Amino acid sequence: MKLITSPNIADADGIYQRLIALHHGRSEEDSMRVNTRLILLLINHIGDEQAVNEAISHAGGEEEQ
Amino acid sequence: MGEASPVQWRERVPVWRERQASPLPASAPREKARIVIVGTGPVGLAQAIDLGQRGHDVVVLGRFDFVPLGSKAICFSKRSLDILDRLGVGERAVERGVIWNVGKVFWKDEREPVYQFDMLPVKHQKMPGFINIQQYYLEDMLLERIAELPNIDIRWGHDVTGVELGNADAGVAVASAAGDYHIDAEWLIACDGNKSTVRDLLGLDFEGRVFEDNFLIADVKMKGERPSERWFWFDPPFNPGQSVLLHKQPDDVWRIDFQLGWNIDREACVRPENVDPLIRAMLGPDVDYEPEWYSVYTFQCRRMERFVHGRVLFAGDSAHLVSPFGARGCNGGFADIDNLGWKLDLVLRGEANADLLESYNAEAVTTADENILNSTRSTDFITPKSKVSAIFRDAVLELAREFPFARSFVNSGRLSTAVSYPAGPLNTPDCDDWKGKGVAPGFPALDAPLGEGWLLERVGKGFVLLCNGDPGFTVPGVELLDIADAGNIDLLIERYGLSPGAATLLRPDQYVAARWKSPTEAAVTEALARSKGASGS
Predict the structure, then answer these.
(1) Reported pTM
(2) How far apart are CA B111 and CA B96, in angstroms?
(3) Where are the domains of chain A?
(4) Which domain covers residue B190, as residue numbers?
(5) Between chains, do A40 and B399 touch, taking CB under 8 Å as contact?
(6) Which tens digit of pLDDT belongs to each residue from B300-357?
(7) How many domains would you assign to chain B?
Protein backbone atom coordinates (compact mmCIF):
# COMPACT_ATOMS: atom_id res chain seq x y z
CA MET A 1 0.00 0.00 0.00
CA LYS A 2 1.77 3.08 -1.25
CA LEU A 3 -1.24 5.24 -2.07
CA ILE A 4 -2.38 7.57 0.68
CA THR A 5 -6.12 7.05 1.10
CA SER A 6 -6.61 8.79 4.44
CA PRO A 7 -7.21 12.59 4.47
CA ASN A 8 -4.05 14.28 3.21
CA ILE A 9 -5.06 17.87 2.35
CA ALA A 10 -5.95 20.71 4.69
CA ASP A 11 -8.49 22.62 2.60
CA ALA A 12 -10.53 19.94 0.83
CA ASP A 13 -13.44 22.31 0.19
CA GLY A 14 -11.20 24.93 -1.41
CA ILE A 15 -9.52 22.44 -3.72
CA TYR A 16 -12.87 20.94 -4.68
CA GLN A 17 -14.20 24.41 -5.49
CA ARG A 18 -11.22 25.16 -7.76
CA LEU A 19 -11.66 21.80 -9.48
CA ILE A 20 -15.29 22.60 -10.32
CA ALA A 21 -14.39 26.17 -11.32
CA LEU A 22 -11.82 24.76 -13.74
CA HIS A 23 -14.68 23.23 -15.72
CA HIS A 24 -17.03 26.19 -15.60
CA GLY A 25 -18.31 27.11 -19.05
CA ARG A 26 -16.42 24.31 -20.81
CA SER A 27 -17.92 21.78 -23.18
CA GLU A 28 -17.82 18.13 -22.08
CA GLU A 29 -15.08 17.44 -24.58
CA ASP A 30 -13.00 20.37 -23.39
CA SER A 31 -13.51 19.30 -19.78
CA MET A 32 -12.28 15.85 -20.65
CA ARG A 33 -9.19 17.41 -22.22
CA VAL A 34 -8.52 19.52 -19.12
CA ASN A 35 -9.04 16.55 -16.79
CA THR A 36 -6.62 14.52 -18.84
CA ARG A 37 -3.96 17.19 -18.56
CA LEU A 38 -4.58 17.31 -14.84
CA ILE A 39 -4.19 13.55 -14.47
CA LEU A 40 -0.91 13.56 -16.36
CA LEU A 41 0.49 16.46 -14.35
CA LEU A 42 -0.45 14.80 -11.06
CA ILE A 43 0.82 11.37 -12.08
CA ASN A 44 4.21 12.82 -12.83
CA HIS A 45 4.25 14.64 -9.52
CA ILE A 46 3.45 11.45 -7.62
CA GLY A 47 6.14 9.62 -9.55
CA ASP A 48 5.92 6.45 -7.45
CA GLU A 49 4.79 3.77 -9.88
CA GLN A 50 3.18 1.57 -7.27
CA ALA A 51 1.15 4.47 -5.89
CA VAL A 52 -0.01 5.38 -9.39
CA ASN A 53 -0.91 1.76 -10.12
CA GLU A 54 -2.98 1.61 -6.94
CA ALA A 55 -4.73 4.86 -7.87
CA ILE A 56 -5.49 3.47 -11.34
CA SER A 57 -6.97 0.33 -9.76
CA HIS A 58 -9.07 2.27 -7.25
CA ALA A 59 -10.28 4.69 -9.93
CA GLY A 60 -11.47 1.74 -12.00
CA GLY A 61 -13.43 0.45 -9.01
CA GLU A 62 -11.21 -2.59 -8.54
CA GLU A 63 -10.39 -4.10 -5.20
CA GLU A 64 -6.91 -3.55 -3.86
CA GLN A 65 -4.27 -5.50 -5.77
CA MET B 1 1.40 -27.12 -53.02
CA GLY B 2 3.56 -24.06 -53.80
CA GLU B 3 1.63 -20.83 -54.13
CA ALA B 4 3.10 -19.93 -57.49
CA SER B 5 5.93 -20.86 -59.82
CA PRO B 6 8.99 -18.58 -60.07
CA VAL B 7 7.60 -17.27 -63.35
CA GLN B 8 4.32 -16.34 -61.66
CA TRP B 9 6.14 -14.69 -58.76
CA ARG B 10 7.73 -12.27 -61.21
CA GLU B 11 4.29 -10.97 -62.13
CA ARG B 12 3.55 -10.13 -58.51
CA VAL B 13 6.87 -9.08 -57.07
CA PRO B 14 9.07 -6.40 -58.67
CA VAL B 15 12.63 -7.53 -59.38
CA TRP B 16 15.69 -5.73 -58.04
CA ARG B 17 18.40 -8.14 -59.21
CA GLU B 18 18.21 -11.24 -61.34
CA ARG B 19 19.68 -14.46 -60.04
CA GLN B 20 20.03 -17.55 -62.14
CA ALA B 21 17.52 -20.29 -61.28
CA SER B 22 19.59 -23.04 -59.68
CA PRO B 23 19.83 -26.51 -61.25
CA LEU B 24 18.88 -29.70 -59.46
CA PRO B 25 21.47 -30.66 -56.83
CA ALA B 26 23.72 -33.55 -57.82
CA SER B 27 22.31 -35.71 -55.07
CA ALA B 28 18.67 -35.31 -56.21
CA PRO B 29 16.12 -36.82 -56.02
CA ARG B 30 17.05 -37.55 -52.41
CA GLU B 31 19.80 -35.88 -50.42
CA LYS B 32 20.89 -35.48 -46.83
CA ALA B 33 21.86 -32.13 -45.32
CA ARG B 34 22.86 -31.01 -41.88
CA ILE B 35 21.30 -27.54 -42.13
CA VAL B 36 18.63 -26.30 -44.50
CA ILE B 37 17.53 -22.68 -44.30
CA VAL B 38 14.30 -21.65 -45.98
CA GLY B 39 14.23 -18.05 -47.16
CA THR B 40 16.59 -15.68 -48.94
CA GLY B 41 15.56 -12.54 -47.10
CA PRO B 42 18.04 -10.76 -44.84
CA VAL B 43 17.32 -13.07 -41.89
CA GLY B 44 17.85 -16.30 -43.84
CA LEU B 45 20.99 -14.97 -45.52
CA ALA B 46 22.44 -13.74 -42.22
CA GLN B 47 21.71 -17.11 -40.59
CA ALA B 48 23.49 -18.86 -43.49
CA ILE B 49 26.58 -16.66 -43.07
CA ASP B 50 26.66 -17.16 -39.32
CA LEU B 51 26.58 -20.95 -39.64
CA GLY B 52 28.82 -20.95 -42.71
CA GLN B 53 31.44 -18.91 -40.85
CA ARG B 54 31.29 -21.44 -38.05
CA GLY B 55 32.29 -24.08 -40.60
CA HIS B 56 29.02 -25.81 -41.42
CA ASP B 57 27.65 -26.81 -44.79
CA VAL B 58 24.41 -24.92 -45.32
CA VAL B 59 21.73 -25.28 -47.98
CA VAL B 60 19.56 -22.18 -48.51
CA LEU B 61 16.28 -22.54 -50.39
CA GLY B 62 14.67 -19.47 -51.95
CA ARG B 63 11.42 -19.55 -53.88
CA PHE B 64 12.36 -16.52 -55.99
CA ASP B 65 15.11 -16.60 -58.59
CA PHE B 66 15.69 -12.90 -58.03
CA VAL B 67 16.21 -10.35 -55.26
CA PRO B 68 12.95 -8.41 -54.93
CA LEU B 69 12.77 -4.65 -55.20
CA GLY B 70 10.60 -3.07 -52.54
CA SER B 71 12.71 -1.76 -49.76
CA LYS B 72 10.58 -3.15 -46.91
CA ALA B 73 12.94 -3.02 -43.91
CA ILE B 74 15.05 0.13 -43.93
CA CYS B 75 16.14 0.90 -40.34
CA PHE B 76 18.93 -1.20 -38.91
CA SER B 77 19.75 -0.83 -35.25
CA LYS B 78 23.12 -0.62 -33.58
CA ARG B 79 22.72 -4.18 -32.32
CA SER B 80 21.98 -5.40 -35.86
CA LEU B 81 25.07 -3.55 -37.09
CA ASP B 82 27.14 -5.28 -34.41
CA ILE B 83 25.78 -8.61 -35.67
CA LEU B 84 26.33 -7.70 -39.31
CA ASP B 85 29.88 -6.65 -38.46
CA ARG B 86 30.49 -10.11 -37.03
CA LEU B 87 29.14 -11.52 -40.31
CA GLY B 88 31.52 -9.38 -42.36
CA VAL B 89 29.14 -6.80 -43.83
CA GLY B 90 28.76 -4.25 -41.02
CA GLU B 91 31.32 -1.75 -42.30
CA ARG B 92 30.00 -1.93 -45.87
CA ALA B 93 26.44 -1.39 -44.64
CA VAL B 94 27.42 1.66 -42.60
CA GLU B 95 29.42 3.08 -45.50
CA ARG B 96 26.52 2.62 -47.91
CA GLY B 97 23.75 3.54 -45.49
CA VAL B 98 22.50 6.80 -44.08
CA ILE B 99 23.62 7.16 -40.47
CA TRP B 100 21.19 8.72 -38.06
CA ASN B 101 20.95 9.01 -34.32
CA VAL B 102 18.37 11.74 -33.82
CA GLY B 103 14.59 11.41 -34.09
CA LYS B 104 12.18 14.37 -33.99
CA VAL B 105 8.48 14.38 -33.31
CA PHE B 106 6.23 17.13 -34.67
CA TRP B 107 2.61 17.93 -33.97
CA LYS B 108 0.09 19.64 -36.21
CA ASP B 109 1.60 22.57 -38.11
CA GLU B 110 4.24 23.47 -35.54
CA ARG B 111 7.71 23.99 -36.93
CA GLU B 112 9.52 23.13 -33.70
CA PRO B 113 9.51 19.46 -32.61
CA VAL B 114 7.56 18.71 -29.43
CA TYR B 115 10.15 16.08 -28.61
CA GLN B 116 13.43 14.67 -29.86
CA PHE B 117 15.63 11.71 -28.94
CA ASP B 118 19.12 10.36 -29.50
CA MET B 119 19.49 6.67 -30.32
CA LEU B 120 23.15 6.47 -29.31
CA PRO B 121 23.31 7.93 -25.82
CA VAL B 122 26.55 6.03 -25.09
CA LYS B 123 29.16 7.42 -27.46
CA HIS B 124 32.53 5.92 -28.43
CA GLN B 125 31.25 2.69 -29.95
CA LYS B 126 32.16 1.37 -33.37
CA MET B 127 28.64 1.34 -34.75
CA PRO B 128 26.16 4.24 -34.91
CA GLY B 129 22.72 4.16 -33.29
CA PHE B 130 20.95 3.43 -36.56
CA ILE B 131 21.44 3.34 -40.29
CA ASN B 132 18.84 3.42 -43.00
CA ILE B 133 19.50 1.33 -46.05
CA GLN B 134 17.28 -0.29 -48.63
CA GLN B 135 16.70 -3.96 -47.84
CA TYR B 136 17.86 -4.96 -51.33
CA TYR B 137 21.24 -3.27 -50.82
CA LEU B 138 21.71 -5.16 -47.60
CA GLU B 139 20.68 -8.39 -49.35
CA ASP B 140 23.24 -7.67 -52.09
CA MET B 141 25.95 -7.30 -49.44
CA LEU B 142 24.93 -10.47 -47.63
CA LEU B 143 24.99 -12.31 -50.97
CA GLU B 144 28.47 -10.99 -51.75
CA ARG B 145 29.62 -12.31 -48.40
CA ILE B 146 27.95 -15.66 -49.09
CA ALA B 147 29.86 -15.88 -52.37
CA GLU B 148 33.07 -15.90 -50.29
CA LEU B 149 31.89 -18.92 -48.30
CA PRO B 150 32.08 -22.08 -50.42
CA ASN B 151 30.15 -24.11 -47.86
CA ILE B 152 26.91 -22.18 -48.44
CA ASP B 153 24.82 -23.64 -51.25
CA ILE B 154 22.14 -21.14 -52.14
CA ARG B 155 19.39 -22.40 -54.44
CA TRP B 156 17.27 -19.86 -56.29
CA GLY B 157 13.81 -20.75 -57.45
CA HIS B 158 13.62 -23.78 -55.14
CA ASP B 159 10.34 -23.76 -53.27
CA VAL B 160 9.44 -25.83 -50.22
CA THR B 161 6.24 -27.80 -50.85
CA GLY B 162 6.21 -30.22 -47.95
CA VAL B 163 7.72 -30.62 -44.49
CA GLU B 164 7.61 -33.74 -42.38
CA LEU B 165 8.80 -33.77 -38.80
CA GLY B 166 10.92 -36.80 -37.93
CA ASN B 167 12.61 -37.74 -34.68
CA ALA B 168 16.12 -36.90 -35.80
CA ASP B 169 15.44 -34.93 -38.94
CA ALA B 170 12.94 -32.97 -40.99
CA GLY B 171 11.92 -34.16 -44.43
CA VAL B 172 11.69 -31.33 -46.93
CA ALA B 173 9.98 -31.64 -50.31
CA VAL B 174 11.34 -29.12 -52.80
CA ALA B 175 9.96 -28.03 -56.17
CA SER B 176 12.02 -26.21 -58.78
CA ALA B 177 11.80 -25.54 -62.51
CA ALA B 178 14.50 -28.20 -62.95
CA GLY B 179 12.49 -30.81 -61.08
CA ASP B 180 11.34 -31.88 -57.65
CA TYR B 181 13.44 -33.53 -54.96
CA HIS B 182 13.62 -34.34 -51.28
CA ILE B 183 16.06 -33.35 -48.53
CA ASP B 184 16.45 -35.09 -45.20
CA ALA B 185 17.59 -32.15 -43.10
CA GLU B 186 19.13 -32.67 -39.71
CA TRP B 187 17.94 -29.15 -38.87
CA LEU B 188 15.53 -26.97 -40.80
CA ILE B 189 15.51 -23.23 -40.09
CA ALA B 190 12.42 -21.42 -41.33
CA CYS B 191 13.32 -17.82 -42.20
CA ASP B 192 10.56 -17.63 -44.76
CA GLY B 193 8.74 -14.54 -43.60
CA ASN B 194 5.36 -13.66 -42.21
CA LYS B 195 3.49 -15.93 -44.62
CA SER B 196 5.87 -18.76 -43.77
CA THR B 197 5.24 -21.83 -45.92
CA VAL B 198 6.98 -24.04 -43.37
CA ARG B 199 4.72 -22.78 -40.58
CA ASP B 200 1.63 -23.34 -42.72
CA LEU B 201 2.75 -26.80 -43.83
CA LEU B 202 3.19 -27.82 -40.20
CA GLY B 203 -0.16 -26.29 -39.30
CA LEU B 204 1.34 -24.25 -36.48
CA ASP B 205 -0.33 -21.44 -34.57
CA PHE B 206 0.38 -17.75 -35.07
CA GLU B 207 -1.59 -15.68 -32.60
CA GLY B 208 -2.00 -12.07 -31.65
CA ARG B 209 -3.57 -8.79 -32.54
CA VAL B 210 -4.35 -7.26 -35.92
CA PHE B 211 -4.69 -3.48 -35.82
CA GLU B 212 -7.50 -1.93 -37.80
CA ASP B 213 -5.45 0.63 -39.62
CA ASN B 214 -3.69 0.92 -42.94
CA PHE B 215 -0.42 2.59 -43.73
CA LEU B 216 0.93 3.55 -47.11
CA ILE B 217 4.66 3.17 -47.72
CA ALA B 218 5.81 5.59 -50.38
CA ASP B 219 9.48 5.25 -51.29
CA VAL B 220 10.24 8.20 -53.56
CA LYS B 221 13.40 9.48 -55.16
CA MET B 222 13.98 13.21 -54.84
CA LYS B 223 16.77 15.70 -54.37
CA GLY B 224 16.61 17.99 -51.42
CA GLU B 225 18.48 19.08 -48.37
CA ARG B 226 17.00 17.56 -45.27
CA PRO B 227 18.91 16.27 -42.29
CA SER B 228 19.47 12.54 -41.74
CA GLU B 229 16.95 12.30 -38.93
CA ARG B 230 13.74 10.41 -38.30
CA TRP B 231 10.86 12.86 -38.53
CA PHE B 232 7.44 11.88 -37.24
CA TRP B 233 4.26 13.97 -37.37
CA PHE B 234 1.10 13.57 -35.36
CA ASP B 235 -1.92 15.09 -37.06
CA PRO B 236 -0.08 17.29 -39.57
CA PRO B 237 -2.06 19.59 -41.90
CA PHE B 238 -0.96 17.46 -44.87
CA ASN B 239 -2.57 14.30 -43.42
CA PRO B 240 -5.18 15.57 -40.95
CA GLY B 241 -6.03 13.33 -38.02
CA GLN B 242 -3.38 10.80 -39.06
CA SER B 243 0.37 10.37 -38.70
CA VAL B 244 3.28 10.59 -41.12
CA LEU B 245 6.87 9.33 -40.89
CA LEU B 246 9.78 10.53 -43.03
CA HIS B 247 13.10 8.71 -43.29
CA LYS B 248 16.10 9.17 -45.54
CA GLN B 249 17.62 6.26 -47.44
CA PRO B 250 20.73 6.19 -49.63
CA ASP B 251 20.61 7.46 -53.23
CA ASP B 252 18.13 10.26 -52.50
CA VAL B 253 15.38 7.76 -51.75
CA TRP B 254 12.98 8.82 -49.01
CA ARG B 255 10.59 6.59 -47.11
CA ILE B 256 7.29 8.27 -46.30
CA ASP B 257 4.68 6.39 -44.26
CA PHE B 258 1.17 7.83 -44.41
CA GLN B 259 -1.43 6.57 -41.98
CA LEU B 260 -4.63 6.08 -43.97
CA GLY B 261 -7.26 4.74 -41.56
CA TRP B 262 -9.24 1.54 -41.82
CA ASN B 263 -12.01 1.87 -44.39
CA ILE B 264 -10.04 2.49 -47.55
CA ASP B 265 -9.67 0.90 -50.95
CA ARG B 266 -6.32 -0.82 -50.52
CA GLU B 267 -5.73 -1.31 -54.21
CA ALA B 268 -6.64 2.22 -55.18
CA CYS B 269 -4.50 3.91 -52.54
CA VAL B 270 -1.21 2.67 -54.01
CA ARG B 271 -1.94 3.96 -57.52
CA PRO B 272 0.51 6.76 -58.34
CA GLU B 273 -2.29 9.23 -59.12
CA ASN B 274 -3.66 8.73 -55.60
CA VAL B 275 -0.30 8.92 -53.85
CA ASP B 276 0.72 12.07 -55.70
CA PRO B 277 -1.65 14.48 -53.88
CA LEU B 278 -0.42 13.21 -50.49
CA ILE B 279 3.20 13.79 -51.44
CA ARG B 280 2.54 17.24 -52.89
CA ALA B 281 0.53 18.29 -49.86
CA MET B 282 3.45 17.29 -47.66
CA LEU B 283 6.45 18.46 -49.67
CA GLY B 284 4.98 21.28 -51.72
CA PRO B 285 3.01 21.45 -54.98
CA ASP B 286 6.16 21.77 -57.10
CA VAL B 287 8.19 18.97 -55.55
CA ASP B 288 10.15 16.99 -58.10
CA TYR B 289 10.18 13.26 -57.32
CA GLU B 290 10.01 9.82 -58.88
CA PRO B 291 8.07 6.96 -57.33
CA GLU B 292 10.25 3.97 -56.43
CA TRP B 293 7.91 1.62 -54.58
CA TYR B 294 4.42 2.01 -53.13
CA SER B 295 2.79 -0.51 -50.84
CA VAL B 296 0.03 -0.60 -48.25
CA TYR B 297 0.09 -2.59 -45.07
CA THR B 298 -1.94 -3.41 -41.97
CA PHE B 299 -0.27 -3.95 -38.63
CA GLN B 300 -0.14 -7.19 -36.85
CA CYS B 301 1.47 -8.02 -33.54
CA ARG B 302 1.62 -11.80 -33.42
CA ARG B 303 3.95 -14.62 -32.60
CA MET B 304 4.12 -18.39 -32.60
CA GLU B 305 3.71 -19.99 -29.23
CA ARG B 306 7.06 -21.75 -29.63
CA PHE B 307 9.90 -21.17 -32.09
CA VAL B 308 11.39 -24.66 -31.71
CA HIS B 309 9.42 -27.61 -33.07
CA GLY B 310 11.61 -30.71 -32.98
CA ARG B 311 14.11 -30.30 -35.78
CA VAL B 312 12.39 -27.23 -37.21
CA LEU B 313 13.47 -23.84 -35.88
CA PHE B 314 11.72 -20.57 -36.68
CA ALA B 315 13.50 -17.21 -36.92
CA GLY B 316 12.41 -13.74 -37.99
CA ASP B 317 8.97 -12.83 -39.36
CA SER B 318 7.99 -16.49 -39.67
CA ALA B 319 8.03 -16.61 -35.86
CA HIS B 320 6.86 -13.12 -34.91
CA LEU B 321 5.39 -9.99 -36.44
CA VAL B 322 5.29 -6.44 -35.13
CA SER B 323 4.08 -3.07 -36.32
CA PRO B 324 6.83 -1.19 -38.15
CA PHE B 325 7.03 1.64 -35.60
CA GLY B 326 10.19 0.95 -33.69
CA ALA B 327 12.05 -0.91 -36.43
CA ARG B 328 11.61 -4.16 -34.58
CA GLY B 329 10.87 -6.48 -37.49
CA CYS B 330 14.11 -7.22 -39.31
CA ASN B 331 16.15 -6.18 -36.27
CA GLY B 332 14.21 -8.74 -34.25
CA GLY B 333 15.03 -11.33 -36.92
CA PHE B 334 18.74 -10.59 -36.71
CA ALA B 335 18.53 -11.00 -32.93
CA ASP B 336 17.06 -14.48 -33.53
CA ILE B 337 19.76 -15.72 -35.85
CA ASP B 338 22.45 -14.24 -33.61
CA ASN B 339 21.04 -16.20 -30.68
CA LEU B 340 20.46 -19.41 -32.63
CA GLY B 341 23.69 -19.66 -34.66
CA TRP B 342 26.19 -20.45 -31.93
CA LYS B 343 23.83 -22.77 -30.11
CA LEU B 344 23.13 -24.85 -33.20
CA ASP B 345 26.87 -24.83 -33.91
CA LEU B 346 27.63 -26.38 -30.50
CA VAL B 347 24.87 -28.94 -30.95
CA LEU B 348 26.11 -29.90 -34.42
CA ARG B 349 29.65 -30.30 -33.08
CA GLY B 350 28.41 -32.47 -30.25
CA GLU B 351 29.67 -29.96 -27.67
CA ALA B 352 26.19 -29.30 -26.35
CA ASN B 353 23.04 -31.30 -26.00
CA ALA B 354 20.09 -30.43 -28.27
CA ASP B 355 18.38 -29.15 -25.11
CA LEU B 356 20.49 -25.99 -25.53
CA LEU B 357 18.09 -25.03 -28.30
CA GLU B 358 15.36 -24.78 -25.69
CA SER B 359 17.21 -21.67 -24.50
CA TYR B 360 16.89 -20.29 -28.03
CA ASN B 361 13.15 -20.70 -27.62
CA ALA B 362 13.23 -19.00 -24.20
CA GLU B 363 15.44 -16.07 -25.21
CA ALA B 364 13.95 -15.47 -28.65
CA VAL B 365 10.43 -15.56 -27.20
CA THR B 366 11.55 -13.01 -24.59
CA THR B 367 12.86 -10.80 -27.38
CA ALA B 368 9.71 -11.22 -29.44
CA ASP B 369 7.50 -10.40 -26.45
CA GLU B 370 9.47 -7.26 -25.68
CA ASN B 371 9.24 -6.20 -29.31
CA ILE B 372 5.53 -6.96 -29.48
CA LEU B 373 4.90 -5.11 -26.20
CA ASN B 374 6.75 -2.00 -27.37
CA SER B 375 5.27 -2.13 -30.80
CA THR B 376 1.73 -2.52 -29.44
CA ARG B 377 2.19 0.41 -27.07
CA SER B 378 3.51 2.62 -29.87
CA THR B 379 0.65 1.65 -32.12
CA ASP B 380 -1.90 2.44 -29.44
CA PHE B 381 -0.35 5.89 -29.02
CA ILE B 382 -0.03 6.60 -32.73
CA THR B 383 -3.47 5.29 -33.67
CA PRO B 384 -5.75 5.80 -30.65
CA LYS B 385 -8.66 3.36 -30.66
CA SER B 386 -11.12 5.39 -28.59
CA LYS B 387 -12.04 8.99 -27.96
CA VAL B 388 -10.49 8.96 -24.50
CA SER B 389 -7.33 7.41 -25.87
CA ALA B 390 -7.12 10.20 -28.47
CA ILE B 391 -7.65 12.84 -25.78
CA PHE B 392 -4.85 11.39 -23.68
CA ARG B 393 -2.56 11.31 -26.71
CA ASP B 394 -3.29 14.93 -27.57
CA ALA B 395 -2.94 16.03 -23.94
CA VAL B 396 0.52 14.44 -23.84
CA LEU B 397 1.56 16.23 -27.02
CA GLU B 398 0.12 19.50 -25.78
CA LEU B 399 1.89 19.27 -22.41
CA ALA B 400 5.14 18.13 -24.05
CA ARG B 401 5.64 21.54 -25.60
CA GLU B 402 5.81 23.19 -22.22
CA PHE B 403 6.69 20.53 -19.67
CA PRO B 404 9.64 18.16 -20.08
CA PHE B 405 7.96 15.37 -18.10
CA ALA B 406 5.29 14.85 -20.76
CA ARG B 407 7.89 14.19 -23.46
CA SER B 408 8.61 10.78 -22.00
CA PHE B 409 5.00 9.78 -22.74
CA VAL B 410 5.33 10.74 -26.43
CA ASN B 411 5.54 7.44 -28.27
CA SER B 412 6.16 7.60 -31.99
CA GLY B 413 7.87 4.20 -31.84
CA ARG B 414 10.35 2.99 -29.24
CA LEU B 415 13.24 2.11 -31.45
CA SER B 416 14.83 -1.29 -31.38
CA THR B 417 17.65 -1.83 -28.92
CA ALA B 418 19.24 -5.09 -27.85
CA VAL B 419 17.01 -7.14 -25.55
CA SER B 420 18.41 -8.41 -22.26
CA TYR B 421 17.77 -11.74 -20.55
CA PRO B 422 18.50 -10.98 -16.89
CA ALA B 423 16.67 -14.16 -15.83
CA GLY B 424 17.94 -16.20 -18.78
CA PRO B 425 18.62 -19.90 -18.19
CA LEU B 426 22.24 -19.67 -19.39
CA ASN B 427 23.37 -16.91 -17.01
CA THR B 428 25.49 -17.47 -13.95
CA PRO B 429 24.18 -15.04 -11.33
CA ASP B 430 26.68 -12.61 -9.82
CA CYS B 431 28.42 -13.71 -6.65
CA ASP B 432 30.25 -10.39 -6.17
CA ASP B 433 28.80 -6.97 -5.44
CA TRP B 434 29.21 -4.88 -8.63
CA LYS B 435 27.42 -1.88 -7.11
CA GLY B 436 25.26 -1.51 -10.19
CA LYS B 437 28.31 -1.05 -12.41
CA GLY B 438 29.47 -2.97 -15.47
CA VAL B 439 27.44 -5.23 -17.74
CA ALA B 440 25.51 -7.89 -15.85
CA PRO B 441 24.90 -11.51 -16.94
CA GLY B 442 22.20 -11.73 -19.61
CA PHE B 443 22.95 -8.29 -21.02
CA PRO B 444 24.55 -7.62 -24.40
CA ALA B 445 28.18 -6.55 -24.42
CA LEU B 446 28.63 -2.82 -24.66
CA ASP B 447 31.21 -1.80 -27.22
CA ALA B 448 34.26 0.21 -26.19
CA PRO B 449 37.55 1.24 -27.76
CA LEU B 450 40.32 -1.37 -27.40
CA GLY B 451 43.80 -0.60 -28.72
CA GLU B 452 43.47 0.58 -32.31
CA GLY B 453 40.07 -1.06 -32.72
CA TRP B 454 36.97 -2.01 -30.78
CA LEU B 455 36.05 -4.62 -28.21
CA LEU B 456 33.22 -6.08 -30.28
CA GLU B 457 35.63 -6.78 -33.13
CA ARG B 458 37.48 -9.15 -30.80
CA VAL B 459 34.52 -11.18 -29.53
CA GLY B 460 31.80 -13.13 -31.33
CA LYS B 461 33.41 -16.36 -32.55
CA GLY B 462 33.48 -18.46 -29.42
CA PHE B 463 33.39 -17.92 -25.67
CA VAL B 464 35.78 -15.20 -24.50
CA LEU B 465 37.02 -14.41 -21.01
CA LEU B 466 37.59 -10.67 -21.04
CA CYS B 467 40.02 -9.99 -18.22
CA ASN B 468 42.12 -7.23 -16.78
CA GLY B 469 45.30 -9.18 -16.06
CA ASP B 470 46.22 -12.83 -16.63
CA PRO B 471 43.93 -14.96 -14.43
CA GLY B 472 46.65 -17.65 -14.24
CA PHE B 473 44.59 -20.46 -15.78
CA THR B 474 42.93 -21.38 -19.04
CA VAL B 475 39.69 -23.25 -19.64
CA PRO B 476 39.31 -25.37 -22.78
CA GLY B 477 36.85 -23.73 -25.19
CA VAL B 478 37.37 -20.25 -23.74
CA GLU B 479 39.64 -17.71 -25.40
CA LEU B 480 41.43 -15.33 -23.02
CA LEU B 481 41.29 -11.67 -23.93
CA ASP B 482 43.60 -9.98 -21.46
CA ILE B 483 43.41 -6.23 -21.94
CA ALA B 484 45.87 -5.26 -19.19
CA ASP B 485 48.66 -4.41 -21.61
CA ALA B 486 46.49 -3.08 -24.46
CA GLY B 487 46.21 0.64 -25.15
CA ASN B 488 43.12 2.80 -24.98
CA ILE B 489 41.27 0.73 -22.38
CA ASP B 490 39.95 3.32 -19.93
CA LEU B 491 36.40 3.32 -21.27
CA LEU B 492 36.34 -0.47 -21.50
CA ILE B 493 37.42 -0.80 -17.87
CA GLU B 494 34.80 1.74 -16.84
CA ARG B 495 31.99 0.16 -18.87
CA TYR B 496 32.65 -3.36 -17.50
CA GLY B 497 33.74 -2.36 -14.01
CA LEU B 498 36.86 -4.35 -14.87
CA SER B 499 39.13 -3.63 -11.91
CA PRO B 500 42.54 -5.37 -11.97
CA GLY B 501 42.01 -9.13 -11.73
CA ALA B 502 38.31 -8.99 -12.68
CA ALA B 503 36.88 -10.88 -15.67
CA THR B 504 33.69 -11.09 -17.74
CA LEU B 505 32.74 -14.24 -19.65
CA LEU B 506 31.13 -13.45 -23.02
CA ARG B 507 29.01 -15.84 -25.06
CA PRO B 508 29.65 -16.24 -28.78
CA ASP B 509 26.74 -13.85 -29.45
CA GLN B 510 28.46 -11.14 -27.38
CA TYR B 511 26.12 -11.51 -24.40
CA VAL B 512 27.55 -11.59 -20.90
CA ALA B 513 27.34 -15.08 -19.36
CA ALA B 514 29.07 -14.46 -16.02
CA ARG B 515 31.56 -12.17 -14.29
CA TRP B 516 33.86 -12.22 -11.31
CA LYS B 517 36.01 -9.82 -9.35
CA SER B 518 38.52 -12.69 -8.99
CA PRO B 519 37.70 -15.58 -11.31
CA THR B 520 38.72 -19.15 -10.51
CA GLU B 521 39.19 -21.99 -12.95
CA ALA B 522 36.35 -23.91 -11.35
CA ALA B 523 33.95 -20.95 -11.52
CA VAL B 524 34.69 -20.24 -15.19
CA THR B 525 34.39 -23.94 -16.06
CA GLU B 526 31.03 -24.14 -14.34
CA ALA B 527 29.73 -20.94 -15.94
CA LEU B 528 30.81 -22.22 -19.35
CA ALA B 529 28.96 -25.49 -18.83
CA ARG B 530 25.86 -23.61 -17.74
CA SER B 531 26.05 -21.39 -20.81
CA LYS B 532 26.15 -24.49 -22.96
CA GLY B 533 22.91 -25.67 -21.43
CA ALA B 534 24.06 -27.90 -18.59
CA SER B 535 21.61 -27.23 -15.80
CA GLY B 536 23.33 -25.22 -13.11
CA SER B 537 24.22 -26.75 -9.78
Answers:
(1) 0.93
(2) 31
(3) 27-65
(4) 6-69+134-205+302-358
(5) yes
(6) 899 999 999 999 999 999 999 988 888 999 999 999 999 999 999 999 999 999 999 9
(7) 2
